[in-house]
């Protein structure tokens, strides 16, 4: 007799809070709106303490399973973050297969669909082999997905480095992009990570659909163009289920920056944070400090340990500096900086409750690395941004945020060849955002985008409809657990 149970999905998340938190939010919505239960599958390797709060108190119907640790000691010491993640994804595939088989065989559970985070499309093949519908949960913009889908063609049809392409990369419904604004691992053809990204673009083609943390008002043309391509069978369909913005920090109310913000005038504070992993060099940290001081603006800065080699060095948490032994990132700030700026500034080490900070009435600007969650969070809070991209697809996100269509961000740009942003450039950009005319225009756009983001999320609105369409599809396509196990 066929077993009947509520739809149950398995969602594989790659490491990093910027991936884990949206996965938890997706699972929470699936449970609350559609009665769909989930198992969130995490990796033991590369797990970061910052992800723990998101996984700590899950609502009923959501459970977790961790894939066992696999050895990585054969990777070179400074292996790129993408290499490390993809190696873990590949080496844990047998464990994932066992987990899916045991869930498929469980009378209480079954697997209605399998969702792989954007960095784990190699895992789709396992679900496909087991006859389980398989989707990508894409935690960045649809435009960046379009560029990754284009990567195999880029590799096949060009021979130069993409920064030397004679013209912009123009993809359907996307902003024209300079080759240098494509994701950072495709910047060097000889880099082994280049091939991994090409494979990722090919793996995406096995997906039955893309569930994307974006919304129509932000990416209308890209969604339309993607729909045309999926109607023609070029790509699987994309569903805009965002924007997902939620804080998982119980400690927010207790964090010392909140009472400090309470004392600041409305819209006066620049919040400075480079996501969960963005890392500046020692010299850049000093220039940023001097620039903030010279700007004369109020600021709240989440300071990380510097690292001169890797702009994503703190992605998995902890101390990463290659300078000295100090245990406090604030000790790497220029001497006397914290004391001199105390009347207008607050520096906090490593981590702060970002969603609450952006939602505070005192915050009037965000100096951001343009990680996609940070981008959505600043939009949802109606706070204009200064875009300072560092790695991954952040340059592309910065182009989008500063584009005429979005218009939420001003750019911080370095004139020096080595990419160092000078204190003068920092100070000028900060003043322009906080008290300049361009900043005022960006602030107005930020307010409009906040209204659009809210509209996307109203009950019965576009995000709910998109998620409902996905769930309907799962319900129609669900194989019986017995059939899948037999396959
Ligand atoms: N975040 C935070 N406090 C911090 C730094 C980061 O709460 O001090 C959160 C931020 O709100 C966002 C996530 O961590 O939800 C970072 O994701 P994003 O996509 O912006 O960047 P990534 O860390 O993936 O580069």
Automatic annotation (TrEMBL):
Gene3D superfamilies: Glycogen Phosphorylase B. CDD domains: GT1_Gtf-like. PROSITE patterns: UDPGT. It is an enzyme of class 2 (transferase). Its EC number is 2.4.1.-. Keywords: Glycosyltransferase, Transferase. Belongs to the UDP-glycosyltransferase family. Transmembrane segments: none annotated. This is Glycosyltransferase. It comes from Panicum hallii var. hallii. GO terms for molecular function: UDP-glycosyltransferase activity.
């Amino acid at each position: 007799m066929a077993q009947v149970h509520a739809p149950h999905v398995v969602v594989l998340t790659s490491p990093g809070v910027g991936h884990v938190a949206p996965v938890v939010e997706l699972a929470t919505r699936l449970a609350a709106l559609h009665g769909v239960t989930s198992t969130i599958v995490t990796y033991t390797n590369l797990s970061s303490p910052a992800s723990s709060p998101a996984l700590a108190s899950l609502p009923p119907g959501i459970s977790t399973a961790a894939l066992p640790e696999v050895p990585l000691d054969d990777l070179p010491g400074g292996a790129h973050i993408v290499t490390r993640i993809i190696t873990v994804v590949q080496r844990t595939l047998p464990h994932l297969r066992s987990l899916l088989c045991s869930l498929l065989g469980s009378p209480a559970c079954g697997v209605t669909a399998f969702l792989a985070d954007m960095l784990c499309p190699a895992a789709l093949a396992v679900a496909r082999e087991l006859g389980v519908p398989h989707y990508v949960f894409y935690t960045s913009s649809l435009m960046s997905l379009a560029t990754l889908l284009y990567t195999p063609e880029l590799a096949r049809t060009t021979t130069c480095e993409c920064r030397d392409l004679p013209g912009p990369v123009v993809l359907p419904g996307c902003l024209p992009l300079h080759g240098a604004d494509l994701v950072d691992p495709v910047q060097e053809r000889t880099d082994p990570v280049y091939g991994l990204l090409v494979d990722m673009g090919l793996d995406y083609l096995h997906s039955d659909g893309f569930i994307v943390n974006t919304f129509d008002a932000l990416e209308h043309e890209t969604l339309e163009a993607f729909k045309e391509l999926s109607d023609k069978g070029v790509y699987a369909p994309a569903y805009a289920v965002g924007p997902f913005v939620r804080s998982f920090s119980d400690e927010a109310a207790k964090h010392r920056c909140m009472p400090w913000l309470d004392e600041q005038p409305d819209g006066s504070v620049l919040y400075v944070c480079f996501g969960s992993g963005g890392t500046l060099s020692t010299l850049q940290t000093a220039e940023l400090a001097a620039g903030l001081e010279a700007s004369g603006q109020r600021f709240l800065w989440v300071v990380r340990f510097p690292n001169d080699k890797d702009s994503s060095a703190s992605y998995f948490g902890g101390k990463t500096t290659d300078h000295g032994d100090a245990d406090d990132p604030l000790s790497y700030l220029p001497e006397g900086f914290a004391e001199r700026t105390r009347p207008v500034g607050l520096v906090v080490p490593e981590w702060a409750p970002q969603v609450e900070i952006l939602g505070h009435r005192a915050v009037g600007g965000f100096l951001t690395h343009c990680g996609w969650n940070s981008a959505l969070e600043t939009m949802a809070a109606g706070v204009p941004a200064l875009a300072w991209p560092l790695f991954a697809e952040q340059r592309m996100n910065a182009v989008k945020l500063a584009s005429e269509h979005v218009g939420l961000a001003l750019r911080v740009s370095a004139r020096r060849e080595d990419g160092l942003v000078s204190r003068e450039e920092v100070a000028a950009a900060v003043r322009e955002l906080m008290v300049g005319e361009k900043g005022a225009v960006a602030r107005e756009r930020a307010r409009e985008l906040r209204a659009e983001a809210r509209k996307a999320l109203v009950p019965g609105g576009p995000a709910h409809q998109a998620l409902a369409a996905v769930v309907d599809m799962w319900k129609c396509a669900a194989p019986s657990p017995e059939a899948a196990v037999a396959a």
